[in-house]
Write a structure and sequence with these properties.
Chitinase A, domain 3; five-stranded mixed β-sheet; two-stranded parallel sheet; 7 strands; 25% strand; elongated
């Protein structure tokens, strides 16, 4: 499929492996079902078409996960003394007088609600390689300046 690298934590990789096994199980169960017969009339059987569509969607999801598993790169934390921002960094920033804390992860694990932002997001991209004390400017609809207060690794 692609040669894109997928950056995941060990936990994220385990979640993807579990999802892969679940998808394969669903496919096996779907194939065990009695597939509706394709009728050779002008009007295809809707039940058959639904079965084929469901199976195609499942196959597409499996192919995507297989691509991820072939091209995964585990995020490795640098030494705890490292103060520049890389994948896996826990970052405390200040913007507009408010502090926020998050972990910089690959796109597949990004979930802002749980404090995980993607390295490909505008903020993540701007912060990569920066150090404590630096400021970065991120422009979208409005311009925001983020002051990097703390960088740490687990």
């Amino acid at each position: 499929m692609s040669n894109k690298k997928y950056y995941l934590t060990k936990e994220g990789l385990e979640r993807i492996k579990k999802e892969y096994e679940e998808l394969k199980t669903k496919r096996r169960e779907k194939l065990k079902e009695d597939a509706p017969e394709a009728t050779h009339t002008e009007d295809p059987d809707p039940e058959y078409l639904t079965f084929r569509k469901d199976l195609a969607v499942l196959e597409e999801k499996i192919a995507k996960v297989e691509d991820v598993l072939r091209n995964v790169e585990i995020i490795k934390s640098p030494s705890k003394k490292c103060k520049d921002i890389r994948l896996g960094a826990e970052v405390v920033i200040e913007a507009n007088g408010q502090e926020d804390k998050f972990i910089l992860v690959g796109t597949m694990e990004a979930d802002p609600i749980f404090g995980k932002i993607s390295d490909e997001s505008p903020v993540g991209r701007a912060l990569l390689g920066k150090k404590e004390g630096e400021e970065v400017k991120v422009s979208s609809k409005i311009e925001v300046i983020y002051k990097i207060k703390k960088v740490s690794y687990q």
